[in-house]
Design goal:
This protein has about 375 residues and is an alpha/beta fold. The protein contains 10 helices and 16 strands.
Amino acid sequence: MFARSALARASSTAGARLYSTSRAARAPPATMAASVLREVGGPEAMKLETDYPVPELSDGQVLVKNQYAGLNFIDTYHRSGLYARELPCALGQEGAGVIDVVTPKAAEMGLKVGDRVAYNSFFSYAEYTAVPAAKILPVPDGVPLDIATALVVQGMTAHYLTSSAHAGLIQPGEWLLLHGVGGGTCQWAAQMAKIQGYKVIGTVSKGKQAIAEATGCDELIVLDEMEGTSYEDYTSVDVAAKVMEITDGKGVKCVIDGIGANTWELSLASLGLRGICIFFGNASGPVPPVNPLKLIGKSNFICRPKLLDYTASREELLWRSSEVFGWYDEGKLKCSIDRSFPLSETPEGHEYLQSGASTGKVLYDCAKF
């Protein structure tokens, strides 16, 4: 990613001359509050530290004073060690706030102190984050900063999943299967798929049916909940059979599957001729290795994409963000903020997300600790 491999230590005197700050030419603070991971483990491994050094800037970066940081499932993978990170670090890879410090190269890009911005970059569980200017997203006046935070990873992920990752193997008017439309990212994806003209089948647990109905899916497959959780029990309904019934036996052209271990087989079984299955998450565990011979029956495709590769240039990043922010501003997208935890309660936020209870975006309030 574009941020440093660990939160940088306090700026040197030479480094301090690199950037311009506010109109009063004040220096940035030396320390800040951050939720720091020093060894992988459960949610309790994250500890609030109130004297953590503010990251030092390189030319081409800005320092953002975070108002919100977003919580995503990938953060739990980093915390547990499923996806390796250099430690110690503050987790999080999205946030929104106000630019506090601008370096000369960032200023040349038109960025200035006081700009309302969002970003997709590491180390957002903190009061301040050093962000490459190329990763900064200007936030329109009509978009609140909590909504902007929700739009960064979940919104942009939903955008690339529905617009690009399928490689054109589905066309408007054709069927798409989307798992877990009662959750955050897939609430966005269902709405965006409809905006782009696809017919959408969503799976959802009974407890989140009303949320899923609000996304505008053409058809819903409602499942029981796994005992003691809010997660869908994918053994309670023959999802592939329901899909074939809805599609007159043809199957869908695209499956978007963020569940993983519990759904990958039924996802493949739901595909039609030359359909594609996009695996993008591991909510129930990772998808095991798939024998390519499983795909031969209907000449199917599978892929496992990631957001970074679909925001590979600033032009692509701004195209995606402008569409997502624009759809929200025009009233075409609804955004649900579920809960906002204080920065001091990062473990509780992870526990809540992993329980499956969330019905929208989960945030951290970086001013509360």
